[in-house]
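Sequence in, structure out. Go.
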Amino acid sequence: MKLTGAIDNYANHEREADEADVSGELTPMYRFFDPKLNGFFSGGIAKPNATNIVLIFGTSGVGKSLFALNIIASAIREKKKFAHIILEDDTGEMLSRLRKIIPYEDIKKSDHILIPSSEIKTHFDQKEALELFENLFKEHFVDIIVLDHIQFLFEASAAGKQDNEWIRQRLFVQELNRIVKTYKKTLVIVSHVKKGADMTLDSTTGSNSIPQVATKAYAIYRNASKQLCMKQEKTRYTKPFFDEIPIRFDKNLRMWYDDGAKQEDEL
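Output:
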């Protein structure tokens, strides 16, 4: 291809570099309730004025959606506008859980857009799906989108397609990455894993392009001792911390580091 229009150079990106220097190796946005977890992961899950694609993956019923709801609770506490795309679970059940995590009055006052599965057409193409994400960032000024989960989106947009499934998924994820990069916002993707997976980045169902574009990736699983754990499998902006971390969800469904001690649920 030939270069057209204005020729770019590094001097045009000085402000972006300055912003990166200021924030350093920290991801202070969308912090966990537990300061210990924030300490492990350099603050929270996202960096200001940057591309943030956060992947949460695990088997069915292990707590992926609860993890995502804890992130939504953080968005509410931090006064960020969020969009929640619910493609698998019942919307009423999601709200029932969320209002345990954070007061219902705070939820009602929060600036948000809810997109339940009933709003997603049974058959739609990838162009329409990508238009939805761009519209949320560009027209509705959403700070963070939580997609739970991505496989349902793949399946819905695949209806009637004869082309290679993995190529189609890879192109979709690449374009999704471009959209997030353009607006420098946060996208949280919840993903299922292959049956019998070893809970590494290769575990996710579908194209390996999903973990490739992630800036942070968290596995949630039960270890050999049946202890619920999470592990950061990838981080782009912060110092690596890849140790297995035991976690628990308290009676209010908030996520905490589990040190094994008998303790009252945190306020």
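Check: The mean pLDDT is 87. The CA atoms of residues 25 and 40 lie 13 Å apart.
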